[in-house]
Amino acid sequence: MAGRFWHWYEQANRVVRFFTGPAQIGAGYVEEPDVRTTDHACPMCGAALSTHTIQRSANQITPTRMICPR
Ligand SMILES: [Zn+2]
To answer: Which residues pair with 41 in a beta bridge?
Structure first.
């Protein structure tokens, strides 16, 4: 039973691939190497995020706070 279903599935995929083509891989253009900065700038003050202090609470009621250096 599973063999017949698989055969039907393969035939259905062959028909679909005739119209859609193979699976598209990549972004559709020539991609450059992904260069990322190791230390992002703070969206509020512009300083590096590594210079900031993150206050995380022990409970789930108090929100996490980020303190910008001045
Ligand atoms: Zn900041």
So the answer is: 48
CA separation for the pair 53, 45 (Å, rounded): 13
For the chain, the first-to-last Cα distance in angstroms comes to: 71
pTM exceeds 0.70 for this model: no
At 39 the three-state DSSP class reads coil
pLDDT (tens digit, 9 = 90+) per residue, 43-63? 999 999 999 999 998 898 999
Dist. CA 56 → ligand 1 center (Å): 16
Ligand 1 centroid – CA 34 distance (Å): 25
Name the residue ranges covered by the structural domains of the chain: 43-70
The alpha carbon torsion through 42, 46, 52, 58 (nearest 10 deg) reads: -30
